[in-house]
Amino acid sequence: MAADLRLIDPFITSQPSVIWQTFQRLLKDGTLLSHTGITVLETTASFLIGTILGTLIAILLWWSDFLSQVLDPYLVILNSTPKTALGPLFIVFLGDGMKAIITMALTISVIVTVVMVYTGFKGVDPNKIKLVRTFGASRLQVLQKVVLPASVPTMIAALKVNVGMAFVGVIVGEFLVARAGLGYLIIYGQQVFQLHLAMTSVVILIITAALLYRLVSCLESRFLRWKE
Which residues of the chain, if any, have pLDDT below 50? Predict the structure, then answer.
């Protein structure tokens, strides 16, 4: 209504009816599915690799007090460093393709996973660890029987945060180098002054992010039911 009454400039803000028309056009010509599929693929790859790699690093830090003491300051520095500043370096090293985008997303998701999971490991009740060690459990058995089961809620929380962080990394990477994806559509719409295209891409991005987050939440619910 505000756009129709010219209370706002629809050229700058677009409007729901135009966004809906753009959505239908993109869906009809296949552009929507193509760009959304690329962004989801990059996000899924970054999410899975980041989660697995981050969990393994957290296990190594828990396993070795020496590694923990040596690497802890570097983790703090990496966690506080703006990852977008590393984007140009990834482009130079890896080119302007999907590798650079996934790597940028990994720099965010891996660090978040390591910090959260390792914090969960350190928060395990030391009395439980002491108990199983009293019965002669090895370090591997302590990890399998006590630390990992007790840290499952933290690991699931890390998954829920990680899917959002991976999405952020992918979109930032697409802003910089991509020739396809939702981030590319947003930048392209801005450059050619088709703000309705940019706004439509933002709406699709929000819906896609919500669906991915919901998927992780469903996995959490299934695990909790199995645990009960």
Answer: none
Structure tokens at 43: 């996000």
Question: What is the reported pLDDT for 226?
Answer: 64
CA separation for the pair 7, 38 (Å, rounded): 37
pLDDT at 227: 62
- Kindly report the backbone phi and psi dihedral angles of residue 135, in degrees, each rounded to the nearest multiple of 5, phi listed first: -85, 10
DSSP codes, 46-61: HHHHHHHHHHHHHHHH
Q: What are the C-alpha distances in Å from 11 to residues 19, 31, 54, 196, 202?
A: 12, 22, 44, 8, 16
| Phi, psi of 28, rounded to the nearest 5 degrees | -70, -40
Q: Which of 108, 116, 12, 98 is nearest to 55 (CA)?
A: 116
pLDDT reported for residue 63: 87
Angstrom distance (rounded) from CA 63 to CA 70: 13
Which pair of structure tokens corresponds to residue 154?
A: 């933290």
Is 68 exposed, middle or buried, given 0-12, 13-18 or 19+ CB atoms closer than 10 A? middle
Angle between helices 152-177 and 195-227 in degrees, nearest 10: 160
pLDDT given for residue 114 in this prediction:
87
What is d(CA 150, CA 147) in angstroms, rounded to the nearest whole number? 5
CB 173 within 8 Å of CB 104: yes
Instruction: Sketch out the chain's domains with CATH numbers.
Output: 41-227 (1.10.3720.10)
